Amino acid sequence: MDTLESQISHLNVRYGIGIGDIVTEINPSLSIGADGPAFWHAREALEYIHDNHDYGMSHNYLISEKKEFRLINDILALSDHIKYSMTNIQKETLHFIIKEGIYSDTFDQKSVAHKMNISDVSLYKRLKAGQIKVYLRSRLHIDQYLKEILL
């Protein structure tokens, strides 16, 4: 989601994520006819986030049969709040880092600062004030957790 959001950052998009099976054949050029629990959950999640968006700060919601996804949704909401609270320059920094293929809180800050044509200190201040590393770490942990339980 973050990679897509980085590419369309000028748009305000909500994501409804459904976990489950798709019982119909998938047609990549046409979504009409897609059916099954994953599709139903995604629609329900999108409706939920439309009505319960935490004052415009939450943009992601996940629904599945499993109850442990409540914690995932809370972490998604908290990370959305971090992102919502970032300044434009901090968001640009986050998008740059993601576009560089960095999706971790551990990376070579000097190298990133050099690629951004800013000082190490400027990058450090952006990372700290925007809580960018906390954001990346929380999203990475969600990704790892979902891969573990779904595979």
Task: Give an overview in words.
20% of the residues are buried. The chain contains seven helices and two strands. The mean pLDDT is 86. The chain has one domain (2-150). 58% of the residues lie in helices and 5% in strands. α4 crosses α6. The longest helix has 19 residues, at 132-150. The chain has helices spanning 2-7, 37-51, 69-85, 88-99, 109-116, 120-129, 132-150; strands at residues 15-18, 60-63. The protein is mainly α and 151 residues long. It has a two-stranded parallel ribbon. α2 (37-51) links the parallel β1 (15-18) and β2.
Q: Report the sheet-strand fraction.
A: 5-15%
Structural class: mainly alpha
For the largest sheet, list the strands in their spatial order: 1-2
Q: What number of structural domains do the residues give?
A: 1
Overall average residue pLDDT: 86
Separation of the first and last Cα atoms: 19 Å
Q: Quick gist of this model?
A:
This protein is mainly alpha-helical. The chain contains 7 helices and 2 strands. It has helices spanning 2-7, 37-51, 69-85, 88-99, 109-116, 120-129, 132-150; strands spanning 15-18, 60-63.
